[in-house]
Specification:
Layout: H1 54-62, H2 75-80, E1 90-93, H3 100-106, E2 111-115, H4 118-127, E3 133-137, E4 140-144, E5 148-152, H5 160-163, E6 168-171, H6 183-193, E7 199-206, H7 221-228, E8 232-243, H8 248-252, E9 257-267
Parallel strand pairs: 1-2, 1-6, 2-5, 6-7
Antiparallel strand pairs: 3-4, 4-5, 7-9, 8-9
Length: about 270
């Protein structure tokens, strides 16, 4: 395991200056105001800006084509949970039915996710055997449960008021679900949701596959620097490289190698999105 990326190849070698301290603390508000929501054509990856439509994700979940779902707790989250800063609510965008949310709660973290597929949300609470209440919040449906609350709706229609204060963000599956043309909008909307000093633990793979091939998409370190630079500092925490010889699944995908980049972002102060 080593940092092997370089600027020419767009791997994990780019490193930003140290990030600002001061992550927020506090507890997730059980009652939040209304507002926001997803329209009838809810655009999960673009908010109307040309990304993949909600129907794409509804179909994937309906047909159980969810290869992006990880059955195990993410190993990078286990290694870098301290990057989330002091304990407090963790926001998980495009959360699916990720078991990482339950694991975060087991570590003493309250979690709030957002997801557009009702099948994914229902599956999470059913598989984790967590009792849940359903409450309308504007055009969102909020699934309220001890430790893990999920908003059913469009990420791009979520407001800071509806989300409430969070201490950190964990993104393993959201950015890499975004087509290239939509990623800057994703980053800018994230900036609107967060207070200055809020850390983000971001995990993103990179390989030399077709940049339009996905989701999940490959996102390089240099692109992460570019799309987040206006509102966040970016630090590379780890870069893990595997070859097709080490992981036969890469060969099945026609890849000679793949890198997994782990980043710690921090919302800059004084930069309005």
């Amino acid at each position: 395991m080593r940092g092997v990326g370089d600027r020419a190849r767009g791997g994990c070698g780019v490193r930003a200056p140290g990030w600002a301290a001061g992550a927020l603390s506090g507890r997730f508000r059980a009652a939040r105001g209304g507002g926001g929501g997803h329209g009838s054509a809810g655009d999960r990856a673009g908010g109307g800006g040309g990304g993949m439509k909600a129907e794409f994700w509804h179909t994937r979940w309906h047909e159980n084509r969810i290869g992006f779902h990880q059955a195990e707790i993410n190993r990078f989250l286990r290694r870098h949970i301290d990057a989330l800063g002091p304990k407090g609510p963790v926001f998980v965008p495009l959360c699916g039915k990720s078991r990482d949310m339950s694991w975060l709660f087991e570590q003493g973290r309250e979690v709030i996710g957002i997801e557009i597929s009702p099948l994914a949300v229902e599956a999470f609470y059913r598989e984790q055997k967590i009792p849940v209440d359903r409450v309308g919040r504007g055009e969102f449906l909020e699934y309220q449960a001890t430790g893990v609350t999920i908003l059913l709706g469009d990420y791009f229609r979520l407001t800071a008021e509806l989300l409430g204060p969070v201490a950190a963000v964990y993104d393993r599956a959201a950015l890499i679900a975004m087509p290239p043309a939509t990623r800057r909008a994703y980053a800018e909307h994230m900036a609107r949701l967060l207070a200055p000093g809020t850390p983000v633990l971001l995990i993103a793979p990179f390989s030399l596959k077709d940049p339009q091939s996905g989701p999940p998409f490959a996102v390089s370190s240099s692109e992460i620097q570019e799309i987040f630079a206006d509102h966040f500092t970016v630090e590379v925490l780890e870069c893990e490289r595997k070859t097709a010889e080490e992981d036969p699944r890469l060969a099945e995908q026609g890849l000679a190698w793949r890198e997994e980049g782990v980043y710690r972002l921090c919302r800059r102060a004084g930069r309005e999105a």
